[in-house]
Protein 1
Amino acid sequence: MTRLDPRGASPDAPVPAARLHIDWTRCDGRGLCTELLPELLDRDEWGYPIARSLSDRSDVPVPPELEQAALDAVTLCPVIALRLTRR
Amino acid sequence: MFDDTMWAFGRASGIVDLVLLTVAVLGGILTRSGRPLPGIPRFALSLAHRNVSMLAVVFLVLHVATLLLDPYAKLTIADVVVPFAGAEKPFWLGLGTVAFDLLVAVVATALLQRAIGTKAFRAVHWLTYAMWPVAVLHSVFDGTDGTDAWFVVGTVLATAAVLAAVAWRLSHGFLETQSLRGPDRLRAPQRPDAELRRVS
C-alpha cells in the first residue's frame, strides 16, 4: 500500500521512512553534510546545504538506502544542526 | 624487570602522547577552518581529529597508569588529579597534572556536546590552547628524555607547526565561510548586466 506524502511532494512518491531536519538557527554551512549526502543535498554559494528535492527544504526526505549516511551527517555536524526524524 | 618495563613504557607513552596531542591540535584547527584538504573531505578530517584525540586520551591513560605502577616515579593517585603536590619535581610534574585535568575537561565536553550545547562545548574546547603548551613544558622539563637533542628538535618543530596553525587561525581569511560570505565577497564586482545598465 502506498501512502501519500502529507507535505504534498509528488502524489505518487511513497512516504520516506526518515527525514533529515535542518535547524537553520544552528546551521553554519560547514559543508560536512553536503559531502556525506550529495544525493540529497547541494551546497549553495554561501556554503549552506540546499535540498535537491524541492518538497521540503528543512525536513529533507531520506530514502532507506541513505539513512546510514544521514546518520553519519547527524553525528558529524559540528554545530548539531541536524536531526533524523522517523515516523 | 617489571619496574623497568613500567618506567620505559611510561616514558614512551608520554612521548607518543605529545605527538598525538600535537596532531590533534593541528587537526582541530584545520577542521575549524571548514576547509577540506586535497583528496580528504571535511567529514574525514573531522573524524580523524576525533579519533586522534581519543587515541591521545588512551595513551595519556597508559602514561599515567604505568607511572603509577612504577616505584621510581613516586607517583600517587592524588598526583593524577591534584597538581604541584608531587614528590619529585613537583612543579613540572604538576604541569602534567594540569594538562591531564584540562584534557579530561576538553574531551568530556566534546563527548557531551549534544547534552551541554555548542556554546559550552566551544568555551571549554578553547582550553586546548592552554593544555597543549602546558603538556609540552611538562614533557621537556619533567621527561627523562626531555632535554635530549632529538626530543628538543622534535619539540621545536611541533611548536613551530602549532604556532603557524594558531597564526593562521587568527588571520582574516581563516574560515572558509569568510571567503564565501565575508566582506571580501560583498566588495566583489557587480553582475555584468548591472554594469551595462549603468553605462547605457
Note: Chain A is about 15% helix and 25% strand.
Protein 2
Amino acid sequence: MNAWVGKAVIGLIAFVLIGSAGDAYAHKPSDSYLSLQVDGPQIAGRWDIALRDLDYAIGLDANDDGTITWGEVRARHDAIAAYALARLSIGSEGDSCPPRAQEQLIDQHSDGAYTVLRFLAECSNQPRALDLRYRLFSDLDPQHKGLLRLEYRGRTQTGIFSHDHPETRIDLAGSTPLKQFLDFGREGIWHIWLGFDHLLFLLTLLLPAVLFRSQNRWRMVSEFRPALWDVVRIVSAFTVAHSITLSLATLSVIHLPSRWVESAIAASVVLAALNNLLPVVQGRRWVVAFGFGLIHGFGFASVLADLGLPQGAKVLALVGFNLGVEVGQLAVVAAFLPLAYGLRRSWVYERLVLVPGSVLIAMVASVWLVERVFNLKLLPL
Amino acid sequence: MRAGVAVLTLLCLAAWSPAATAKPFLPADDAQVLERLRTSAADPQARELRRLRAELAQNPGNLDLAVKLARRDIEQGRAEADPRFYGYAQAALGPWWNAPEPPPSVLILRATLRQSVHDFDGALADLDAVLRVQPSHPQAWLTRALIAQVRGDYPEARRSCAPLGRLSTRLVAATCRAGAASLNGEAARSFDFLRASLEAEPDADPQLRIWVLTVLAEMADRLGKVSEAETYFRQAMALGLRDSYLLGAYADSLLDQGRATEVVALLKDEIRADGLLLRLTLAEHVLHAPSLLEHVEALRARFEASRRRGDAVHKREEARFVLHLLGQPREALEFAKTNWAVQRESWDARLVLESALAAHDRSAAQPVVDWLTASKLEDVHLAQLVDALERGAREAKR
C-alpha cells in the first residue's frame, strides 16, 4: 500500500456508512415557514425561522454555553429582523413593497423553537401579481428551503423556495380581467346557493306559479305557457330590482346599515310566505318581487364588499358577480319549474308543497328575523 | 392493530388539546431556555469547524481548505444525524459545486451528498467521473459499491469492491466484499470470513472497527444469531464514538427481541433525529409509555413537514410509522412500495412484506418475494414473513 492510498484510507471510513439508511435517521432538515396575507396593497407577513439556523448565521448563543435563552434571542431581535428581511424581497411589476419588521414571538415546531417574525409590506398599488425573491441561508446551507403559504381572498397558494429556485411569481386571483370576471361570477353563483334567504324568497314567490286563484281557491294552470310567463315576470322583476340596488350600493351611491338590510330580507321572506297562505297580493306577485328585490340587492352588495373589490375593476367585478347571481337563479328556476308543473295536478302540490312549504318557510324566516333584529344566534343557518 | 386504533383515537383527541394547536407566545422570563445546541465553546469538534470556516472565509478560493471543511461537516452531520451539516458542506464546496468539471476531491463529496438525498444516479455519475481520471481511487470504488448494495444490485456491488483488494487495507476490502456477498447467497460464509478478517487486524482504527462491527452485527442478526449480534453491537457501542446508524440498528435488534425497556434507556435523549425518535416511540408503544402520544404527534408533524418541503427520503420510516404506530396497513403498503422502488435493503423488503401481510394483500408482496428468491437474500425475519404470507394464501384457498 503506497502512501497516497494510505492517506485516502484515513477518512474513508467516516464516509462509508452514509448509506441511505443513515440519512433516513436524520433530523428534519432546515426549513423556514413564510406566510403572507395579501389585503389590498398591504401584505401582512409571518416568518418562522429556526433559532438553530439563526444561531449558525448570526450567533444567538451569546455566552456560548450551548443553550439559547429568551434573553439572548430578545437581545438579537433587531439583528434577526435586519438579517432575514434583507434576504426577502417582495415586488409587484417593478413596484417594490419593502417589508418592515414588527414584533417577534416564539413558536415550538416539531423540531425545536422558532422565532416568529411578523412584518408588514406596503405596495404603492394593489398588486396583481407578486414577485418574491428568497435568499435566506442560501449562502450558508444550500439545502435550506423556504415554505411559502400565501393567502388572498380566502384562497391559499403554496410554494417552495430553495437555493436553486430562489424566485417565484404568484399570480393573485383575478390577475387578468377575464379571470377576475369569472371569479366574481363564480362567487355570485355560490352566493345564491349558500345565501339561503335569497333562494327561499325566490322559491316562495315561485311556488304558486303553476296555480291560479279563483273564487278563493287554488286551481292548476292548464298550460305550461302561462306558468312560464309568470315565472319569467317574477324572476326578471327580482333581477332588475336587486341589480339596481346592488350597483348603487357597490358604487357607494347609497349605503344602508347591514343589520337593517338583513332584517328586512328576513321579513320579505316571511311576508312572501304568508302571502301564499292568505293571499293578499295575487296576480301581481312580480311587483312584490321587484319591491323586495330592491332590499335583497343591498344584501348582495355586502357580500360583494366582503369579497374585497379590486381597485380599478369595480364595475367588471360588479357585472361578473351580478351575472353569476342570475346564472344561479336560473339554475334554480330550471330545476323548479318542470317539477312543479308535473306535480301540479295532484292534490299533493297544494296540500303537501304549497301550504306546508310556505308554513315552514315562514317559520324559518321568522326565526331569522328575530335573530337579525335582536342580533342573536338561534339557527345553524 | 387494536393498539393502533387506540393511538389514532387518542391522536384525534390530542389534536384538540392546546399543545397540538400551539400558538406563538411571548416567553415571560429572559432566562427561559428555548433551544439546546449540540455545540458549545467546550466542544472541540465545533471549535475546529468554526476555525476552518473562519479560515475558508479568509481564503474563499482555497480548494484544500474547502474540501477539509466539507469533509468535517459531513462527518459531523453523520455523527449527529443532522442534515444541516450536509448543507454546510455543500456551501463550503460552493465555488466548485456547479462547475462543468469539478476536481475529483469535490466530486467524491458531491456524490456522498447526492446519495444522501437518494439521488443515486447523480452520485454514481460523479463517482464514475472520478474513476475516469483516477481509476485507483479507493473511496470512489467503495462508495460505488455501497450505493449498488443499497439498490440491491449485488453483482455490481461485488465488482466495485474487487479493486479495493489492491487499493485499500485488507479489512476494508473484506468488509465491502462480505457485506455484499452476505446478501447474495453467501450469508454464513461471509460472516465467518469477516469475523476472521477482523480478528486478524486487532489494531484497526476505531472508525473502521465501528463499521466492521456494525456490519457483522447486522449479518448475525439476519442469520438469527441473536446473541452474537448482541455481542458485536455492544463492542461497537463500547468504542464510544457517536454513531446514529449504529444506535438505530441496535435499537431495531432489541425491538425484535421485545426488549423495549432497553430501547427506551438507549434512545431516551434521541428525540431530534427522526429515525431514532421513531424507534424510541415504537418502544414506548410496546410499553404504553406516557410520552407515546407526544412523540407520535411529533413524528406525524415531521413527516408532514418533510412532505411540504418536497422530500421523498423518509418513505421507509414513514411506512413503519404508519404501519406500527397508526395501524393503517393499506397506507403503509403504499409508502413501502414507493420506497422499494428506490432502495432495496433488508428493511425495505421487510416493510413491504409486513404491510402486505397486515393489509391481507398477498399480491402486493409478490414482487418482493420473487426478488428475494432471485437475489438469494437470507434473512430470518424476511423468511418468517414470507412463510406467514404463504400460510395466509393457503388458508384463503381452503
Note: Chain B touches chain A through 87 residues (CB under 8 Å).
